[in-house]
Specification:
Elements: H1 2-18, E1 36-38, E2 56-58, E3 66-67, E4 80-82, E5 90-91, E6 104-106, E7 128-130, E8 152-156, E9 162-163, E10 176-180, E11 186-187, E12 200-204, H2 206-211, H3 213-223, E13 229-237, H4 240-248, E14 256-264, H5 266-275, E15 283-291, E16 310-318, H6 331-334, E17 339-343, H7 352-357, E18 363-365, H8 373-379, E19 392-394, H9 403-410, E20 418-420, E21 441-443, E22 462-464, E23 482-484, E24 504-506, H10 517-521, E25 528-530, E26 536-537, H11 540-550, E27 557-558, E28 567-569, H12 585-588, H13 590-614, H14 617-640, E29 652-657, H15 663-675, E30 686-687, H16 689-692, H17 699-709, E31 710-717, H18 719-723, H19 725-741, E32 746-750, H20 764-772, E33 776-777, H21 785-797
Parallel strand pairs: 1-2, 2-4, 3-5, 4-6, 6-7, 7-8, 8-10, 9-11, 10-12, 12-13, 13-14, 14-15, 15-16, 16-17, 17-18, 18-19, 19-20, 20-21, 21-22, 22-23, 23-24, 24-25, 25-27, 26-28, 29-30, 29-31, 31-32, 32-33
This protein binds 2-acetamido-2-deoxy-beta-D-glucopyranose (9 copies).
Protein name: Toll-like receptor 2
Family: Belongs to the Toll-like receptor family.
Keywords: Disulfide bond, Glycoprotein, Immunity, Inflammatory response, Innate immunity, Leucine-rich repeat, Membrane, NAD, Receptor, Repeat, Signal, Transmembrane, Transmembrane helix
Length: about 800
């Protein structure tokens, strides 16, 4: 029943810690910049794929039941592996073989019933190993033999029954050892004896302490030496038998003792005090103390605890609050210590009488109790002489409301240097105050302050005002080295000239929008700055400045994580880490960008123009445009004259295209010969631009209509022709007409000998015509001209 209940509990805990986290069955990519991969609480049922560069891999609180040989292969650089809380039941013998660099391994809270020496065979670098809370009943073969670097070892669990000398062979040098041996029933004397120098030893021997004191003595006698800081966990002492341990073992040589989770009766307290009477114990800490009795400790009033320097009780629980009556003669408990802490113990009153007894106290920590301004007044004897040696006073986390009260009460604590009044209800600061001149450190964080006035002592070196409601800070503090202003409502940095000695400034989680060199320049000595988690406006200046700072440029280092500097605006950068933002030139140098790009565009445009001009593209364009326009008007014309029949359109036998310079040849030879022939020859009608073009019409129109109204087009080719642009149009139009008509409408006459090569390349049409159409050459000799004319006539008369 109990077991199933605890099982339910642990399942619930598992659910609670893992609540709301999604899982990805195969791989885990949640690695930070330092290559620490946190794959905790993701519901993995097997070791996920993780980058092989990972340095730390946290797989805790998953449901990985087995680690196979391949799961961690290749992770040669892994330093830390955490498999805590997985229900892990099986690990293959060579599962960790590739982890040569592993320094920390946590296998605690799993279901390993047998431990295998082969797991650790290759882990020569291992420094810290945690095997706690697994259900193995013995360690087995010498597990740790090869772990020469091991410094921290934690093992044991609820069913560990036996420890033999061979189990810890090879373990000789540990700094810290934790042993949970609640159910230990066999201990071979000497098993832990060789370990040295044990700085901290934590033992959980709950059941043996109740039932088998001989075993406890054997363990303690093996491990204890005066330098070892001993912690005993889960100590349940309600009879004085358990206390016997403190008498029978050399625990009485221990100087530092911590009891954690400790339940004691009055009887046990008295026995304990008697046992430590005159012992060299210098520090006693009890964390989690449940007192079942009524405070009848008078039998121990003579206890000599003069060597005890430090006494700490945290989390005190009085089971019988109403009958508990701690009598005033316990002054021996507090008489000699310099350091007293009574933390979280529901203490609401400490009388002036008892504090007057604490004449040596220099450090008093009463944090997390129920003190009020009134009871604080009693405790400090209303400002009269008490605690005159006090250097440190911590009353953090009490029900204090009036800052003036603590200022008044502390005035006589002339040695006070350190005052922690954080987590209180202070809401306003008086305008002027007088603090002890010795005060150097003041912590008023997590209060409700809305203003900071010159009340703050000018002697302060460290001031913590974080998590208040401050908006500005204008008090000059010439000696201040550290200022904490995180969690307030600052819109800008306080002026640096107020703190000429400031070295550390934290101003995280405020409402800063941006900061720059000018803000920080006034802090002459600033070295460390934390300003993350603000609502940064990622302007170019800010991003540039911060990236420089993050890289370590300048004398100020940013000591908080890079990732806490995130952009809040502009919108498209919201949430982006400032260190990874790349603002483009367009955004950062707008004017420069615009002028340069305009210049480049202009240059390009002119280059293109030159190129186009060189390639005569303009000429082509002009021509196509002209042709299109002409074509349209010709179509209109055609539509208009459609009724008159197509023949009516043709009114000339030939349109003669020639250059003005060849006009004399046309007028003197061609026209007379063809239009007014001698003899029986039929006259032909020619269309000449000079004569037949309608004045007032657009020339291209004229050309086109002339070509259309003629059956043929005669080109009079010469050097001049090639140079005349109108002729080129004519040529081109006729060329189009060739396609329109589908026949051989063009006739070429070469006035002077020319070859295709004499025609410039861009007149590709002319060149093509010259090579495809037979042309007539104008003969220089008279006698051959007859033949020329005949050929021409024939060509003209042919049906197209
Ligand atoms: C890993 O993440 C879990 C929550 O997912 C958190 O509780 C834990 O502290 C993280 N561990 C480290 C080392 O940051
Ligand atoms: C863990 O895995 C086992 C099977 O391997 C399953 O029975 C159990 O329900 C799982 N637990 C959780 C919390 O996912
Ligand atoms: C403690 O050990 C005994 C044997 O010595 C065993 O019978 C018992 O089950 C163990 N207790 C627990 C809680 O495992
Ligand atoms: C405190 O010790 C008691 C035994 O004395 C144990 O039952 C309990 O679980 C412990 N509590 C914690 C929080 O460890
Ligand atoms: C400490 O305990 C041992 C017994 O283990 C005893 O012989 C010795 O006298 C004790 N020392 C003191 C100072 O009580
Ligand atoms: C201790 O208390 C007894 C009475 O219980 C008293 O007689 C004795 O003087 C006290 N010793 C000291 C040192 O106070
Ligand atoms: C005062 O107590 C709080 C809570 O226990 C602690 O955080 C703080 O560090 C203590 N201050 C000093 C000066 O020890
Ligand atoms: C001030 O007190 C708070 C809360 O007790 C603590 O967390 C903080 O570390 C203290 N500040 C300094 C600078 O010690
Ligand atoms: C850094 O400090 C040195 C002297 O401490 C000073 O000369 C130098 O100008 C400082 N550099 C910057 C960037 O402030």
């Amino acid at each position: 029943m109990r077991r199933s209940f605890s099982c339910l509990c642990s399942m619930f805990l598992h659910l609670a810690t893992c609540w709301g986290r999604r899982s990805n069955p195969d791989s885990c990519t949640r690695c930070d910049l330092q290559l620490r991969c946190n794959c905790s609480c993701r519901g993995f049922t097997r070791v996920p794929e993780v980058t092989e560069d990972a340095l730390v891999l946290d797989l805790s609180s998953n449901n990985i039941s087995e680690v196979t040989d391949d799961d961690l292969r290749g992770h040669a650089s892994l330093r830390g592996l955490d498999l805590h809380g997985n229900g892990l039941a099986s690990i293959r013998p060579s599962a960790f073989d590739s982890l040569w660099s592993l320094e920390e391994l946590d296998l605690s809270d799993n279901r390993l019933t047998v431990l295998d020496q082969r797991w650790f065979g290759e882990l020569a670098a291992l420094q810290r190993l945690n095997l706690l809370n697994n259900p193995y009943s013995r360690l087995g073969s010498p597990l740790f033999d090869g772990l020469v670097r091991l410094r921290i070892l934690e093992f044991g669990g609820p069913v560990l029954e036996e420890l033999r000398r061979a189990d810890l062979r090879g373990v000789t040098q540990l700094d810290r050892l934790t042993l949970h041996a609640n159910n230990l029933s066999r201990y071979e004397s000497g098993t832990l004896a060789k370990i040295w120098p044990l700085v901290r030893l934590t033992l959980n021997l709950q059941r043996p302490l109740l039932t088998d004191l001989a075993l406890v003595s054997a363990v303690l006698n093996d491990v204890l030496n005066p330098e070892t800081h001993l912690t005993l966990e889960d100590v349940h002492m309600t009879s004085n038998t358990a206390i016997q341990v403190f008498r029978d073992t050399n625990i009485n040589r221990t100087r530092h003792l911590t009891l954690r989770n400790c339940t004691v009766s009055d009887e046990a307290v008295v026995s304990f005090l008697m046992a430590v009477n005159g012992s060299p114990l210098t520090s006693l800490s009890i964390d989690g103390l449940t007192l079942t009795g009524e405070g009848r400790w008078t039998h121990a009033n003579w206890t000599d605890l003069s060597r005890m320097d430090e006494f700490l009780v945290r989390n005190l629980d009085l089971q019988d609050v109403f009958t508990f009556f701690l009598i005033g003669n316990l002054y021996f408990l507090v008489q000699n210590q310099r350091k007293i802490s009574l933390i979280n113990s529901k203490l609401f009153l400490l009388s002036c009488y008892s504090t007057r007894l604490m004449k040596d106290v220099q450090y008093l920590d009463m944090s997390d109790n129920l003190l009020t301004d009134l009871t604080l007044g009693y405790m400090l004897c209303d400002g009269e002489d008490t605690l005159t040696d006090l250097r440190v006073l911590n009353i953090s986390g009490n029900n204090l409301k009036s800052l003036s009260t603590i200022i008044r009460l502390s005035a006589r604590l002339t040695k006070l240097t350190y005052l922690d009044i954080s987590r209180s209800g202070y809401s306003s600061m008086p305008p002027r105050c007088s603090w002890p001149a010795s005060l150097r450190y003041l912590n008023v964080s997590r209060a409700k302050l809305t203003n900071a006035t010159p009340c703050l002592s000018t002697t302060l070196e460290v001031l913590d005002l974080s998590n208040n409601d401050l908006k500005s800070f204008t008090v000059s503090l010439p000696l201040l080295r550290e200022l904490h202003l995180s969690g307030n409502k600052f819109l800008r940095f306080p002026a640096g000239r107020l703190f000429p000695n400031l070295q550390t400034l934290t101003i995280r989680s405020n409402t800063l929008n941006l900061f720059g060199g000018s803000d920080l320049q006034s802090y002459r000595r600033l070295e460390n700055l934390q300003a993350g988690q603000n609502k940064f406006v990622c302007s170019c200046d800010f991003v540039g400045f911060l990236q420089l700072l993050l890289k370590g440029g300048g004398n100020i280092s940013l000591t908080d994580e890079e990732d806490s500097y995130r952009c809040d605006s502009p919108l498209y950068l919201q949430g982006a880490s400032v260190s990874r933002v790349h603002l483009s030139v367009v955004v950062c140098h707008q004017v420069l960008f615009v002028s340069v790009s305009c210049g480049v565009a202009l240059l390009l445009a002119s280059l293109v123009c030159v190129l186009l001009w060189r390639l005569h593209v303009f000429w082509y364009l002009k021509m196509i445009w002209a042709w299109l326009k002409a074509k349209r008007s010709s179509q209109q014309r055609q539509r208009r004259s459609n009724g008159e029949g197509s023949e009516a359109l043709i009114s000339f036998d030939a349109f003669v295209s020639y250059s003005e310079r060849d006009a004399s040849w046309v007028e003197n030879f061609l026209v007379p010969e063809l239009e007014e022939p001698s003899g029986p020859l039929q006259p032909l009608t020619l269309c000449l631009h000079k004569r037949d073009f309608l004045p007032g019409r657009w020339i291209v129109d004229n050309i086109l209509s002339a070509i259309e109204r003629s059956r043929r087009t005669v080109f009079v080719l010469s050097e001049n022709f090639v140079r005349s642009s109108w002729c080129r149009y004519e040529l081109d139009f006729s060329h189009f007409r060739l396609f329109d008509a589908g026949g051989d409408a063009a006739i070429l006459i070469l006035l002077e000998p020319m070859t295709t090569d004499d025609v410039p390349k861009r007149f590709c049409k002319l060149r093509k015509l010259m090579s495809s159409t037979t042309y007539l050459e104008w003969p220089q000799e008279e006698e051959q001209r007859e033949e020329f004319w005949r050929s021409l006539r024939n060509a003209l008369k042919e049906e197209t």
